[in-house]
Structures are given as structure tokens and as C-alpha cells.
UniProtKB/TrEMBL annotation:
Domain HTH luxR-type: 838-900
Gene3D superfamilies reported for this sequence: Winged helix-like DNA-binding domain superfamily/Winged helix DNA-binding domain (1.10.10.10)
Domain of life where this protein originates: Bacteria
SUPFAM superfamilies: C-terminal effector domain of the bipartite response regulators (SSF46894), P-loop containing nucleoside triphosphate hydrolases (SSF52540)
PROSITE patterns associated with the record: HTH_LUXR_1, HTH_LUXR_2
Keywords assigned: ATP-binding, Nucleotide-binding
Keyword Nucleotide-binding among UniProt keywords: yes
InterPro entries: AAA+_ATPase, AAA_16, P-loop_NTPase, Sig_transdc_resp-reg_C-effctor, Tscrpt_reg_LuxR_C, WH-like_DNA-bd_sf
PANTHER family: TESTICULAR SOLUBLE ADENYLYL CYCLASE, TRANSCRIPTIONAL ACTIVATOR DOMAIN
Pfam families per record: AAA_16, GerE
Designated name of the protein: AAA family ATPase
Length: 900
């Protein structure tokens, strides 16, 4: 058989130049990993610079000390959820039993695609599951190294998992090592981009070889050319792969600098082209077959596909090599070059043939669909079916981005009719809105253009608009669609109309107000409107409470708006128990159906309920989980709630940071903007800038009046303004604002807080004491703290003790309170400066510490606590030991008595 010129000669065995620093850094990291300080290392560098070689070296060195698991990102499979995670873990899972303990169970479906997913939110649940699987494996096997080469081609869900794991490695003997091209060179890979900027990730930049290293390379690879090192370096820039290619060509043909320059460095692609052009018949076809079928294709399959068998030639030419699972290219760049030798038309045809063959053989739908993503329309019904099914599986496994790609491809196939096409487009919208892609709205619009007035799609579309903060448009869509006149639709319209200041919206609101609401959703939105118009709270409650009696209020994307306001009507009428019971159900529902939006929204509403009920720690836990579920930056509702909770706990800096994340310009007339303004005003007050706080609160008041949000409990801007005026030394203004708030809140029927604020700005101890005598833990704790502080500042230390002690007792249920009111403190009198939050005692526990301590006191093990709170074991230990310190105890047994 005729031979062809090798594309790149093998490099001298064992020659790794100029990577001492990298090896040292990794060896250091590995020692710490063995001690439990896990880490993520990201090897970054341009194509051919030596990332894969370095990764092999590092993992080879780890071999004796850790179990090394390997995977590689693959071009063909990058749209397939958890491909890389499977490559990493599957080999171990085949041999080990009993590693599915605890929440690891949630990851089982990752390894049996098509199986029923967990009854939890898919993406979050699977990340949790995989995390616990890794924990279990590390417990069984000791230190682990998870090595992923070509991470820039890895599937997004796997990368998301590695990012997730990266934040939970403290205390876990696990190192993740990924090799990737630099950010500028990679296509849309958000999780990887995050990791590249993550301070917890250790980046190892791989640079080209220096002049000296180039010389050292030549000494081994081409001793006769040793004197040409300078030119070689100049020509290749020190890129080792280019150097290898240059040496391959120059060896034995040139021996002068001029000759070398004339030869030049031809890109790998050109070398591949030339080699294959001169190759015997069949070589090109076989190489292309492997390029299409993917690395690790069994030789028989590749040969059958190509109809040619010149394997040896390609092996000797340094194009293919034989791996443990089949044929593969010697380097990804070689594969890319061969693949590019196919014209787009040929490529599509080759993938289509692959898809057909595999489909006929009954191979897994994922692989068939992977090929279909690279073909044009097939025109046969099976293709759309395979794509639809793969998309549903991707959705069910929490990979909406992949699902969106697959559905978009299915849309290129002929469809059974307009209805099917519209259904697919709407499904595309669902996948895109789950993925947080802004195109979602466009997809719904296209669906509606095909089937104008389709009820379900219109409702979904308006729901997506509302969740994107475009409530005004949501109303316009519903209003313009001429939907049938049924209670659900009227409720959706009414919910949207509440935020819209147009004559159509007003008309609609008036029409609803004129009759008795039919159906629970409409009753609920009506209740909310009553609350916002400051109707008496009992009327609001009388309408809102029965709505939830049957426990069957529909909750899906299309009704989220109406639902949200129904719950708000409960919260604003202080029916916290009813709201909590309903929201426990909704959180469960969100989990079970895996609908991200529903799950995140239900958690958020529960956070709001807990916040107003004074259970700040529970509120914070819910808000954090909600934010963790929805990574979408537009999750402004989540940020708004987090901000209020942080403020109520006196964590001003963090609240200010959360407020800054809400971009008012992108949200239309939504309550979130007003809540953010409210929080900003309070941040200013806590930062002791009373004049600015007053101005901000009064501006908010004007906005609220315009937007039909002037419920004194929902937006207590007058309280903030009163406190600010008092702190700014304007007592009359303060008193007037506080009195106005008391009058409004009194008319509404929820005035405890307003009365306290009135007493606070009057700086009247007796009235404060009276106002604090209420059954609202937050109000009471806030009043008692102020009272204690007043007495202390006045020098009556003994009299101060009792209210402060009681405030502390109330605080574990509420967290820290009162920082905002500190702005009212008299300037430090007689050296008695207002004290910050005490450094010890139950009051001093942070929300997280208190949550962990509470569970520990109830008898949960550290592991159980970690599982329940979705944190790492290390975090639990940390919180517990700091709780012990603050509570001044040394054992778990003492916890219960100190917390109660
Ligand atoms: N430090 C080094 N010393 C000597 N030779 C090296 C070194 N680094 C890389 N090489 C040579 O260069 C070749 C290309 O390196 P490698 O495949 O690791 O590049 P890469 O960065 O992974 O490229 P890609 O981005 O395409 O995956 C290797 O096969 C090896 O022969
Ligand atoms: Mg590589």
C-alpha cells in the first residue's frame, strides 16, 4: 500500500517543556485536596499550545494519590445533556454499588436517559444529585480528580454541574481539572464563561514555548536543525503543535534558515488537505467517515460507513490513531480539518446517512438526534419524532437550552399542519423561557401568528411577558386577542390590567369591579385590587381566603400573574397561615412538575409571607433557594425579596448590593421597581444619609400613587420618610408623615407598625412601649430594641436590660432587627454609644447559623442538615461551630436549651 506523508510526526516521548510552574501549582493543590480542600483548576490556552498534554501529565501524576476520572468534550455531542458527566462517572458506577445513598438518587436518571426523571425540579435536582454522588464516591474511594479535556466542547448541563460543584468543594477531597480554549475563541458556553471569571477557580494559563524551549524541542525532535531554533521560533511563535508540524516537513528536506522560511508554516488544515489529496483511494472517505461519526467510532462501523478500509494508511499518516473504544483523530485540529474538507452539502448528507443508519439500527435517540442537528430537513416523519422526543427528554432532564436547539431543528421538518407547527413553536417558547433566553417571546409570537387567538398559547405568552416584567404588554396581548369570555381568562386580564394605566385597562377593572367575581382566580385578583385601593383588610381577606379553600387554584406559567396576586392578597391581609399552607403545596407542585418558573415563584411568595410574618430566617432560606433555581439575571422579583429580607435583618451592605442588581429601566411599571425604590430609601437611611433617604422615599410615594400601589402596608414609604425626617432633625415633617401613615394603615386595618413608627419619631418611650405591646414579633422586637437603647443611652442601664433581653428572645424567630432605627439614636451621649448587634447569644446568630443550629437541636445529623439545606458538610460544620461559639456552648446537647 502506498504511504502518504505524515501530517504531524509523533513528538519525542516524554518531552514536556516549560510546564514546571504548572506542575508545581497542581501538585500543591493536590496535596490540599487530599486534606479535604477541594479545588477547581482551569487550564486555558490557544489551540495546539499544549493543554491536553499538560492535562495528561497532571492527571498522570495524580494517579497514585487519587482516583482519576476522565472525560472529553465532543463536538457532535455537545448538545446532549450530561454527556461529559456520564463519561466521568459511568465507568465507576458500573463497578460500584451502594453509591446512591441520600439525594444522590436524584441523579440516577442522568445515567439512564429516557427514564422517569426525579420528582423535583430537573436542573437543580440533578445538580444536587450529582453533587451527592460525588460526595459518596469520595467517601468510598478517597480523593478524586475529575478531568475534562476540551471543556469548551462539553455540554452545558455538565458544565453547569461542574460550576455548581466548584462552589461546594470546600471539605471535599475532589479536584476538578478542565482544559479549555480561551473565552474569546469559544462559542456560547455561559457556565464555562462564569468559571473563567470565578475567583474560586484557579486558572493555569498555558503559554507558547520560549525560544530556549523551542531549541530544546529541536534538540530532541530534529537534532540536525538545532541551529535553526531561532527561525523555527519566529515562524511558529512557539506554538508546540505548529512546531511539530514544521519539523515534520523540514526534517531531511531543508537545512538553512532561508530554506525553512521558504517552506513556511502551513496550517494544519492545509497539511491535512495535501496529505489526503495524495493518498490512495478510500483514505479520504474513511477519514471523513470518522470525522462525521465522531471519535471512538469502532473500526468496523467506520469502514462500513466509508465503504473503504485503508485504516493502516491513516494510522501511519498520523491522522487517525487507535483508542481503546475505536478510531479517533490524533488531534482535534486534524478532525476539524478533515471535517472541513466536506462541503456543507456533503456534511449534511453524511450526517443524514449516519442518522438514517443509526435510526434503522435502533440506536439511542440522542445520537440520532445529534446527527439530525447537522442535517437539512429529512422530510420523513421519523426525523421530527426523534427530535421532539429528544427535546422532551432534554427538558425533563433540566437542559432547556438543548431542548430549544432540538425543537428549532424539528421545526425545519415538514409538519402535519398549522396546529402542530404552532404547538412546536409554543414548546420552543417554553424551553427558551426555562433557559432564560429572550427569544422565548418571539417564539410565542410566531406560534400566535399561525393560530391567532389560540387560548393556551396566548395565556402562555402573556405569562412569559409578565415574568419578563412586561406587564403592560401582557395586558395588551390578552386584551387584543379576543379570547372567549371565561373566568380564567378574565382573571388573567384583570391581573394584567392592574399594572396598566390605559383607558382599556381602566374599563376592564371597572367592569370587574361592577360584578361579583366568578371563579377563584378572579376573586383573588379582585381581593388584591381592593387591598391596593386600601379597602378594609377584612373585606380583602373575606374575598381572598375562600379562594384557597379547595386547594386547587391553577398554577402554571399562563396563570402565574393572577396566582401571585392572589397570594399577595392573603399576605397583605395578614392571613399568613393560609398563605403558607397554599405555598407549601405550590412549592411541591413546582418541584413535581419541574416547572422552573412555578417553583421559583412559589418559593419567592413563601419568602414574602415569611418576611411579613416576621420569620426572617425561613424567608431568607426560601429567597435564596428561589434565586438559586432561577439563575436568569432578570429574576428581579427574587432580588427584590432578597433585598427586603436582608434589610429587615439589618444587613445593609448586602441589601444595597441586591438593590443594585435590579435594573429599573428594563422593568415596566411593576411592583418590583417600587419595592426596589423602597429598599434603596431604607438603605440610605441605614447608611445615615437621612436627607437623601427622605427625598428617595417621597419620590417613591409619588410613583406609588401613579401606579395604583399605594397600600400603606405593601409600600410603607411614609414610614421610611418619617424616620428619615426625624433623623434629619425635622420633627414636624416626621410627625406629619407618621400620622398620615397611621391614618391610612388604620383605615386599612393593619396599623401596628405604623403606630410604632409614630412613637419612634416622637422619641416617646411610653408610647414606644405601648406600641410594642403587639402580637407581631418583628414589630415587638423592633420596639423593644428601641426602648432598651433609649434607656441605655439615657444612662438607665438596669431599666434597659429587660426590653433588650426580651427583644433577643424574640429575635431567633426574626433575626436581627433594628439597624434601620439606629439612625434615630441620639448622638452618643455620655460615652454610651449605641451598640451594634451583640457578639454572643441567640440574637448574634446569622440566619444560616440559626437554621443549621435549629436542625441540629432537633436531632438531625450534619449530613442530614447538609442534604436538607442544600449546602455542603463543611458549611454545616462551619455554621455549627460558630453557633457554639456565639451561644457559648460546647456540645450539640446544649443547643436546644439555648435556642428555645
Ligand atoms: N510543553 C510541551 N513540550 C513539548 N511538546 C509539547 C508541549 N505542549 C504541547 N506539546 C506538543 O504539542 C502538541 C499539541 O498539544 P496539545 O494537543 O496538548 O494542544 P492543545 O492545547 O490541547 O490543543 P487543542 O486546543 O486543539 O486541544 C502535543 O501533541 C505535543 O506533542
Ligand atoms: Mg487539546
Amino acid at each position: 500500500m502506498a504511504a502518504i506523508d505524515p501530517v504531524v510526526a509523533p513528538s519525542p516521548a516524554g518531552l514536556l517543556l516549560e510546564r514546571e510552574r504548572h506542575v508545581e501549582a497542581f501538585t500543591g493543590a493536590l496535596e490540599e485536596v487530599a486534606g479535604g480542600a477541594g479545588t477547581t483548576v482551569l487550564i486555558v490556552g490557544e489551540a495546539g499550545v499544549g493543554k491536553s498534554m499538560l492535562l495528561r501529565e497532571l492527571t498522570g501524576r495524580a494517579g497514585g494519590r487519587a482516583t482519576v476520572l476522565r472525560a472529553r468534550g465532543d463536538e457532535l455531542e455537545q448538545e446532549f445533556p450530561y454527556g461529559v458527566a456520564r463519561q466521568l462517572l459511568e465507568p465507576l458506577l458500573r463497578t460500584l454499588q451502594d453509591v446512591w445513598d441520600g439525594p444522590a438518587e436524584l441523579a440516577r436518571s442522568v445515567f439512564t436517559p429516557g427514564a422517569e426523571g426525579p420528582s423535583d425540579d430537573p436542573s437543580f435536582a440533578r445538580q444536587q444529585g450529582l453533587y451527592w454522588l460525588v460526595v459518596n464516591l469520595a467517601e468510598r474511594l478517597g480523593p478524586l480528580v475529575l478531568a475534562v479535556d476540551d471543556a469548551h466542547r462539553a455540554d452545558e448541563p455538565s458544565l453547569r454541574f461542574m460550576r455548581f460543584l466548584g462552589h461546594r468543594l470546600d471539605g471535599l477531597p475532589v479536584a476538578q481539572v478542565l482544559a479549555s480554549r480561551p473565552l474569546a475563541e469559544i462559542e456560547h458556553r455561559p457556565a464555562l464563561a462564569d468559571m473563567l471569571e470565578d475567583p474560586l477557580v484557579q486558572t493555569l494559563a498555558v503559554d507558547r514555548l520560549s525560544r530556549e524551549a523551542t531549541a530544546a524541542f529541536l534538540e530532541r525532535a530534529w537534532p540536525e536543525g538545532a541551529t535553526l531554533a531561532a527561525v523555527c521560533h519566529e515562524l511558529t511563535g512557539g506554538n508546540p503543535l505548529m512546531l511539530r508540524a514544521l519539523v515534520t516537513e523540514a526534517r531531511g528536506t531543508v537545512d538553512t534558515a532561508a530554506g525553512l522560511r521558504a517552506l513556511g508554516v502551513r496550517p494544519i488544515g492545509q497539511r491535512v488537505r495535501r496529505a489526503l489529496a495524495g493518498a490512495p483511494a478510500g483514505a479520504l472517505e474513511l477519514a471523513q467517515a470518522v470525522a462525521v461519526l465522531g471519535d471512538d467510532t469502532p473500526a468496523v462501523e467506520a469502514v462500513a460507513f466509508a465503504g473503504a478500509d485503508p485504516i493502516d494508511i491513516l494510522l501511519r499518516a498520523g491522522i487517525l490513531e487507535e483508542g481503546p473504544r475505536g478510531l479517533r483523530f490524533v488531534h482535534p485540529l486534524v478532525r476539524t480539518s478533515v471535517y472541513r474538507l466536506l462541503s456543507p452539502v456533503e456534511r449534511a448528507a453524511a450526517h443524514l446517512r449516519a442518522a438514517r443508519t443509526l435510526h434503522a439500527r435502533g440506536v439511542s435517540g440522542e445520537l440520532v438526534a445529534a446527527h439530525l442537528l447537522h442535517t437539512g430537513p429529512v422530510g420523513e416523519p421519523w426525523a421530527a419524532r426523534v427530535l421532539d422526543e429528544a427535546a422532551e427528554r432534554a427538558l425533563a432532564s433540566g437542559a432547556p437550552e438543548s431542548a430549544a436547539q432540538l425543537i428549532a431543528r424539528a421545526l425545519e421538518e415538514p409538519d402535519a399542519g398549522v396546529a402542530e407547527r404552532a404547538r412546536r413553536l409554543a414548546r420552543l417558547g417554553d424551553a427558551q423561557s426555562s433557559a432564560g433566553v429572550s427569544d422565548a417571546l418571539g417564539s410565542y409570537e410566531r406560534a400566535l401568528a399561525l393560530t391567532p387567538g389560540a387560548v393556551a398559547i396566548t395565556l402562555q405568552y402573556s405569562g412569559a411577558l409578565a415574568m419578563a416584567g412586561r406587564t403592560v404588554d401582557a395586558f395588551a396581548v390578552l386584551d387584543g386577542a379576543q379570547l372567549p369570555d371565561d373566568p380564567t381568562i378574565r382573571a388573567a386580564l384583570h391581573a394584567a390590567a392592574l399594572f396598566t394605566d390605559s383607558s382599556a385597562a381602566r374599563e376592564h377593572r371597572d367592569a370587574v369591579a361592577a360584578r361579583t367575581p366568578d371563579g377563584p382566580l378572579l376573586a383573588a385578583t379582585t381581593a388584591y385590587e381592593l387591598a391596593m385601593r386600601n379597602a378594609p383588610v377584612d373585606r380583602v381577606a373575606a374575598l381572598a381566603v375562600p379562594v384557597f379553600g379547595g386547594g386547587a387554584l391553577p398554577l402554571e406559567l399562563s396563570t402565574t400573574m393572577a396566582y401571585g396576586y392572589a397570594v399577595w392578597a392573603l399576605i397583605l391581609s395578614e392571613r399568613f397561615d393560609v398563605a403558607r399552607a397554599e405555598l407549601d403545596r405550590a412549592v411541591e407542585l413546582g418541584r413535581r412538575t419541574g416547572t422552573l418558573v412555578v417553583h421559583a415563584l412559589a418559593l419567592l411568595l413563601r419568602a414574602g409571607t415569611n418576611l411579613r410574618a416576621g420569620a426572617l430566617q425561613a424567608a431568607e432560606a426560601d429567597a435564596q433557594q428561589s434565586l438559586a433555581l432561577s439563575e436568569h439575571p432578570s429574576w428581579r422579583f427574587g432580588n427584590a425579596a432578597a433585598m427586603q429580607i436582608l434589610l429587615a435583618q439589618g444587613r445593609v451592605q448586602e441589601a444595597a448590593a441586591a438593590a443594585a442588581r435590579i435594573d429599573a429601566h428594563t422593568v415596566q411599571g411593576v411592583s418590583v421597581v417600587l419595592l426596589a425604590e423602597q429598599a434603596r430609601a431604607r438603605v440610605l437611611l441605614a447608611q445615615r444619609q437621612p436627607e437623601a433617604a427622605l427625598a428617595a422615599a417621597e419620590a417613591l410615594g409619588r410613583h406609588a400613587a401613579l401606579a395604583l400601589f399605594d397600600n400603606p402596608v405593601f409600600l410603607p414609604w411614609r414610614e421610611t420618610a418619617a424616620l428619615a425626617a426625624a433623623a434629619a432633625g425635622r420633627p414636624e415633617r416626621a410627625a406629619a408623615l407618621a400620622a398620615e401613615q397611621v391614618a391610612l394603615a388604620g383605615a386599612y386595618g393593619v396599623a401596628a407598625e405604623a403606630r410604632l413608627v409614630e412613637a419612634l419619631v416622637a422619641r416617646d418611650a411610653e408610647r414606644i412601649e405601648a406600641a410594642a405591646a403587639v402580637d407581631r414579633p418583628l414589630v415587638r422586637a423592633r420596639g423593644l430594641l428601641a426602648l432598651g437603647r433609649m434607656r441605655r443611652v439615657a444612662g438607665s442601664l438596669t431599666a434597659a436590660r429587660e426590653p433588650l433581653r426580651e427583644a433577643m428572645e424574640l429575635a431567633p424567630a426574626g433575626g436581627a432587627v433594628g439597624l434601620v432605627d439606629e439612625a434615630l439614636d441620639e448622638p452618643a451621649a455620655a460615652g454610651a454609644r449605641p451598640r451594634r448587634r451583640a457578639g454572643s447569644g441567640a440574637l448574634a446568630l446569622t440566619a444560616a447559623e440559626a437554621r443549621v443550629a435549629r436542625l441540629a437541636a432537633d436531632g438531625a445529623s450534619n449530613r442530614e442538615i447538609a442534604q436538607e439545606l442544600f449546602v455542603t458538610l463543611k458549611t454545616v460544620e462551619m455554621h455549627l461551630s460558630s453557633a457554639y461559639r456565639k451561644l457559648d456552648i460546647s456540645s450539640r446537647a446544649q443547643l436546644a436549651s439555648r435556642l428555645d
